[in-house]
Structures are given as C-alpha cells and as structure tokens.
C-alpha cells in the first residue's frame, strides 16, 4: 500500500515524498509533511499549501479523502482500493509482500570455529542472519548465505590435542595431564571413537599426527553444526574453508601494495592510516599468519566474486576487527562502504528466574541444541528475532514454555489457528467468502484490515533498517488485534459473515507469511495441550 501511495505522490509532485502513519487513526491511513518542505520554496505557509494540495485529489480512485490538518496532508485509502488489494493478496498468496529488488548480496553469518557444537551465543547470530536472509529473498534480492569455516590456526591444533587426550583417558585408560586450554564436552566421545575406528589407537599417542586427527575431526564437528542449524530451520548456500585460501596469500599481499610492510621480522598491515587504532600484524616472526590474514584473503575473495553489497554478522567481541578489515579492503582497491558489518550481542539465560546452569557434559557452555530441545525451535527463533541484535538479551526459558497469552509465539500461533477454526465452523464455501467485497466495514474491522495489509511495508522496513525485531513486533500487535476483534464481534451466522471471514483470511495470510519469514510454520490448529 505504501509503495502504491508513494509512487502516486512521487508522480504527482515530481519528487520523493515522506509518508508517515498518523498515531490517531481518525486522521487517516497515511500523512505527509510535504507542505512544510515546499513552504520555503513557494514562500507560502504550510497550511495554505496543504489546503491547495488536498483540493487537487478530488477524483482519486485510491483515496476516499485527502485532508489538510495543521499543514499535513492526511490520506484515507478508499474501500475499493483496500478491498481489491485484499482480494489480490488472497488470490496470490505466494506473491504477497514480495518485491523485485535487483541488488546482489553476500551475507556471511555464524562462521563459528569447527571445534565444537554451537552454543547459545552462536544461535543469536544464526537466527538474526537467517531472518535477514529470508526477508531479502522475499524482497527479491539475489542473496547468498555463506558460512566461513575457520579450519586453520591454533584452534584446529587444539582440537586434535583435545581429542587425543580424551581418548587416552577414556578409551586407553591412561592418566593424562590436561593443559590450561583444551576443548571439552560429550561430542569428543563420538569423535574419539570415530578416530579409533578409522586410524587406530596409535594416532592418539603420536603427537606428530594430531594435525591429521584435527583436520579429520573438524569435518565431523561441522556435521554436528550443520545438523544443529537444520533443527533451527537454518541452511547455507555456500561454505568457504579458511584453509583453502592461504595458497592465494602471496598474490593478495602484492595486491595490497603499500598497505603491507615488514618490521621486526613480522608482516604488518598499515591499518592505522585507514582509521584503525594501530597497525596490525598479519604474519608472525615464524611465518604463521594471524587470524586477520585469513580475513584479508577471504574478503579479497568475496569482493572478487562481484557482489553489489556484502554483509557480515559478527559477535560483539569482534568489534575491533571492523576497521582492520575495512582498511584491508581499501588497500585491495575496493570500496569498504560496500561491506556492512552487523554485531550480535551476548545472551543471558534464566530458568524460573534463576541463572541457567551450564552443563558440564557440554564443556561448561550452554548448547544451542539443548535449548531447542527444551523450548522448541519456533520459540528460540522468535526470542532471538524479537530484540535488536546489537543489544544484550536476557530471557527466561519458563516464559516460553507457557501455553498462554504471556508467551508471544503461542499467542500468535493461537491467532492463526483461531482463524482456521472459525472458517471451519462456517457453512459458506470458499467461493462465497472470496466473492464478498470488503466495503462498509465497521471501524474496528476497517482498522484490522488495514493493519493486516501493512505486512509488505513491515518486511521492507525490517530488512532495510536491519532491525528484524520489527516483524515479530508487528505479528504480536496483529495477533492482539485479531483476538480482540474475535471477542468483540460476532461472525458466524451474521449478515456480514462472508466479508468478515474474508477479513480473517487476510489476517491469517499476514500471520502465516510473517511467521514463514521468521523460519516458523504457522499452525492451523492447536493441540489440547496447547489450548
């Protein structure tokens, strides 16, 4: 709706027009302050300009009224327009809220080290990234979801050591001494047994083979990671292994030009000249590349693939890497403005008001898979999408296990199921319902219809602002309006049954589509336990 109105006003006024929604619904569906921006140009008062502009819309098919209110132009959409749009949406469900954006985007998210299962902090970035991905796909962007596998460096060496120590203690029954840093958790058991079967016990006692053990094991860890993500309905289009990139390091160093220099037997990037706090080491004295070196080669590879825009979703602890990577991109000859880095903050879990106890079997971290098992993937996705990703998140698991209106995902699912139940109780055929016109609705029904048809605007705003929480906020509000309408208005057996049912179908379409864009399937009915 907003797009249609914006296009009409842009054509009429020959310029972009800011559209707002009046807080007081009695003022109409949309408003614009264009008269204020024209006042200086025309040397007239905004109120006079607004009055003249309002009178020029007398014969509009889209608007039932255009009024001047204190210098604002207020627009009320016509019943014909709303009814025809609602009918089109129901006839074209798969196209509802879609657009045809042309931009090509590479979105990288999660990218957790392949050294252990995903923990709850990873889940937040995963849900945020996947929701952005779904919104972009729906809007027509050519977007690729990518996982960067950090399978090089010290963390991989530590994986091999950790598996060997676990196996020597628990399979070979040796007494071992653990170093200060090592990986722990039940997942090591499966890896150790698999390694025993593939390589034999000798690999656990031969330190020269720990690297071989680690490189084999990281593929097994990635299988665990991919399975955990799939249980959250998250899937990736492409995977890029860090280890595959270093053959290109010499070429990338040459490409960096003056951005790279040697000092104290180390190789540095001159990132301070590009806005970083200091220059950074990219190759150590012993020739081993730093973590930043891998990022440089990876981002060069990204940009060489020729996307229009690049989005990284990183944990908040990676904030300091942003200026370093941007500096490298500039030295590589690319526009760092094409790279957008979004941060995902940490998560704190409660259970019945108390801090959630970490599992020793999980290695003293809260595993994502454990929380999914406890509250379900729908609830977890909804929680992590419902607050800005760059702000801290604390939630109580108990709240999302409740089967009542205090649990927002239950509340929204119940609204969708309630609509399906009401439709099933009607004796009217779908053809009779669809042929009804959504005119002469009473005020609450008119408001509900307009709100249900706002989904396209919400989808575009949630993606363009990168604030995916706007979608669950909208769905909660729409569900609340539906439940109130249900209690306030009799539907079955009334003279207006057909058009009221059609109205509910539009609400159901927005709820179903919105949930789908969050990776959640709408429920057509609730089980006895859920009601």
UniProtKB/TrEMBL annotation:
One GO location term (cellular component): cytoplasm
Residues spanned by motif 'HIGH' region: 112-122
Catalysed transformations (reactions): tRNA(Arg) + L-arginine + ATP = L-arginyl-tRNA(Arg) + AMP + diphosphate
NCBIfam families: argS
Domain DALR anticodon binding, first and last residues per copy: 412-526
One Pfam family per UniProt: tRNA-synt_1d
Protein name, as recorded: Arginine--tRNA ligase
GO molecular function: arginine-tRNA ligase activity; ATP binding
Family: Belongs to the class-I aminoacyl-tRNA synthetase family.
Enzyme Commission designation: 6.1.1.19
Ranges where the Arginyl tRNA synthetase N-terminal domain occurs: 3-77
HAMAP family for this protein: Arg_tRNA_synth
One GO term (biological process): arginyl-tRNA aminoacylation
Highest taxon listed in the record's lineage: Bacteria
EC top class named in words: ligase
Keyword field: Aminoacyl-tRNA synthetase, ATP-binding, Cytoplasm, Ligase, Nucleotide-binding, Protein biosynthesis
Subunit structure of this chain's protein: Monomer.
PROSITE patterns documented for this protein: AA_TRNA_LIGASE_I
Protein's cellular compartments: Cytoplasm
């Amino acid at each position: 709706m907003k797009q249609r109105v914006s296009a009409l006003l842009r054509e009429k006024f020959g310029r972009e027009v800011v559209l707002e929604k009046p807080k007081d619904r009695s003022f109409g569906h949309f408003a614009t302050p264009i008269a204020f921006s024209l006042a200086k140009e025309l040397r007239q008062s905004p109120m006079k300009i607004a009055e003249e502009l309002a009178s020029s819309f007398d014969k509009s098919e889209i608007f039932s009224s255009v009024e001047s209110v204190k210098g604002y132009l207020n627009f009320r959409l016509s019943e014909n327009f709303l009814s025809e749009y609602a009918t089109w949406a129901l006839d074209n469900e798969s196209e509802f809220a879609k657009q045809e954006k042309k931009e090509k985007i590479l979105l990288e998210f999660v990218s957790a080290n392949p050294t252990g299962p995903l923990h709850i902090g990873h889940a937040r970035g995963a849900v945020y990234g996947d929701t952005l991905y779904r919104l972009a796909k729906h809007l027509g962007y050519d977007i690729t979801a990518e996982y960067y596998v950090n399978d090089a460096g010290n963390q991989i060496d530590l994986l091999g050591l950790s598996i060997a120590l676990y196996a020597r203690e628990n399979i070979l029954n040796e007494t071992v001494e653990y170093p200060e840093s090592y990986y722990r958790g039940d997942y090591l058991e499966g890896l150790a047994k698999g390694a025993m079967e593939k390589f034999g016990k000798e690999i656990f006692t031969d330190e020269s083979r720990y690297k071989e053990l680690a490189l084999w094991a990281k593929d097994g860890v990635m299988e665990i990671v991919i399975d955990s993500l799939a249980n959250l309905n998250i899937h990736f289009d492409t995977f890029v292994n860090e280890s595959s990139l270093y053959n290109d390091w010499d070429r990338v160093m040459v490409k960096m030009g003056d951005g790279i220099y040697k000092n104290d037997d180390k190789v540095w990037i001159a990132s301070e000249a590009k806005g970083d706090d200091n220059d950074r080491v990219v190759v150590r004295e012993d020739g081993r590349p730093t973590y930043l070196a891998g990022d440089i080669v990876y981002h060069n590879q990204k940009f060489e693939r020729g996307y229009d825009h690049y989005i990284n979703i990183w944990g908040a602890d990676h904030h300091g890497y942003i200026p370093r990577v941007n500096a490298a991109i500039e030295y590589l000859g690319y526009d760092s403005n094409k790279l957008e880095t979004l941060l995902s903050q940490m998560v704190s879990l409660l259970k019945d008001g108390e801090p959630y106890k970490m599992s020793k079997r999980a290695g003293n971290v809260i595993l994502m898979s454990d929380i999914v098992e406890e509250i379900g993937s729908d609830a977890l996705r909804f929680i992590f999408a419902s607050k800005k990703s760059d702000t801290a998140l604390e939630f109580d698991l108990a709240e999302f296990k409740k089967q009542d209106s205090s649990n927002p995902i239950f509340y929204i699912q119940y609204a969708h199921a309630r609509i399906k139940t009401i439709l099933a109780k009607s004796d009217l055929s779908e053809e009779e319902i669809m042929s009804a016109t959504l005119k002469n609705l009473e005020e609450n029904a008119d408001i509900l219809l307009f709100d249900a048809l706002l989904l396209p605007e919400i989808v575009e705003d949630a993606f363009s602002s990168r604030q995916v929480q706007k979608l669950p906020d909208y769905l909660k509000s729409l569900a609340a309006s539906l439940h109130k309408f249900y209690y306030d208005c009799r539907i079955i057996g009334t003279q207006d049954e057909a058009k009221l049912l059609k109205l509910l179908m539009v609400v159901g379409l927005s709820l179903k589509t919105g949930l789908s864009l969050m990776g959640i399937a709408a429920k057509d009915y609730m089980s006895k336990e859920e009601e």
